[in-house]
Amino acid sequence: MQPLPSKGWSRLALSAVAILAVAGCSTSAISAPPSTPPTNPSATPVAAPVATAAAPSATVAASTAAQTCAKPKLIVGAIHVGSILDAGYNEAEHDGLMEMIANVPCIKLTEAENVPEGPNVVPVMEEMIQVEGAKLIFPQSYGYQDFALQVAGAHPDVVFEHPSGYKQAKNFGTYWGGSVDLMYVEGIAAAMTTKSNKLGFVGAMPIPQTIAAIDAFELGAQTINPNVTTTVIWINTWADAGKETAATNTLVSQGVDVVTSIVDSPVGVVQTAEKAGIWSIGYHSATVAKFAPQHWLTGLDFNFGPAFTKMAQDVIAGTWTAQNLMEPLSAGMVKLAPFGANVPQTVQTAVTKAAADAAAPGFVFLKGPISDQAGTVRIAAGATTDITQWGNAVDWFVKGVIGQPK
Predict the structure, then answer these.
(1) Are strands 258-262 and 198-203 parallel, antiparallel or unpaired?
(2) For a surface tag, which of 210, 280, 308, 381 has the fewest beta carbons within 10 Å of its beta carbon?
(3) What is the pTM of this model?
(4) CATH: 3.30.70.580, 2.40.40.20, 3.30.70.120, 3.40.50.2300. Which one for 179-302+331-402?
(5) Whole-angstrom Cα distance, residue 102 to residue 388?
(6) Residue 41: pLDDT over 60
(7) Residues contacting residue 100 through CB under 8 Å, at least 6 positions apart
C-alpha cells in the first residue's frame, strides 16, 4: 500500500441527522460537521466512515443496523474534491450516496472530502481499498480520472465509477446525466428574463463538458433572441469563492443581468448576483436557491441516488459491468430546479414546456448550421451531431459566446 500524504486524512463529521458506522453489529455515532463549507480547494483531505442509512435518530439507525446486518455486504469509498456541504457539486454527489445507503441494506460507506485533483488522491483510494476493504470506489471529480484508472489497474477486483469521464476499463465505468440538454433549456430561461441581452457564465475549468454546456446555453438563448450574448470568465479552479465573486462582479460591471456557472459550489456566484440585483441560474444542486431569495431564476438539480443504488446492487449481485453511462434527460438524473418566487408565470410555463420537450424522444438541439465565434460552420446545414461524442471533445464556442474556450 502506498503511504498517505504527510497530512493524512482524518475522520469526517457528517450530516445533521445521526449517521452510524457498521462493522459487524457494532455502531458508533459520527458528530455533526461545521456549518460553513471550506473554500480552499487544497485543504487537508478528511474522510469518514458512514453507515447503513441516514436516520432521524441514532437509536433508530443503531437498531436497524443490528437487526439487518451481521457485517456489511459491500464497503464503498467516495472521494470528493471539495466540501460535501457546498450547496453544489460535492453535496449533490454526497446526497446520491446517502440515498444509495438508504436503499441498499448493509452498505458501509467511507467518504473523503477536500482531496485535490492530483497524485495525492491515489493513497486515499489505496487506504479505502486496503484498510477499509472497499470494493466500490467513487472518485468523484473530473481530474481524478487518470489516477483512479491507475488504482483500478492495480485492483482488478474493485469496481470504480467516475463522474463525467470518457475513459473505460474492465472495472472502471463512468456516469452522467443529460445536463447539456438542460443547459439549452436554461438558456431559454435566461433569454426570456434578460433586459440587457447580456448573459454571463463563470466557468471553473475549460474542459469539454463545460464548453459544451456554455454552447448549449447560448444556443438555447438564441432561440428566444438571436442577438443575446454569453460572456465567459474562467477562474481555473473548481472552488475559490474569492475568484467566483470577482468574476461575477466583473460580469455585472459589463451589463450582464443573468448569470450562471459551473463551479463546485455556486454559492459565491449566486450570492454576488443577488447582492447586485441580477438573476442567477444554479448548477448541480437546488440547495443553492436559498442564497438568492429575490433573484433566483432556476437551475440544474442532480439526483445521483437511483444510479448509485443500481451500481451498488449490481456489485453485490456480481452483475456489474463497465459502461460509459450517459443517461438521457428523461431518466431523471438531472432535472429542472424549482423556479424562484419572483419568476413570472409566463417564463415558468414556457421553460417547463421546453424542459419537457428536451426530455422527449428524438430531441436534438445540435442541428446545423451552427458556426463558431469566427463564423466557421462547424455543423453543416441539415446535419446533426451526437451530443455525447460532441460533449466529450468540443473545444470551440458557438457564435454569440464572448471569451476564449481555453
Answers:
(1) parallel
(2) 381
(3) 0.83
(4) 3.40.50.2300
(5) 31
(6) no
(7) 76, 107, 109, 305, 308, 309, 311, 312
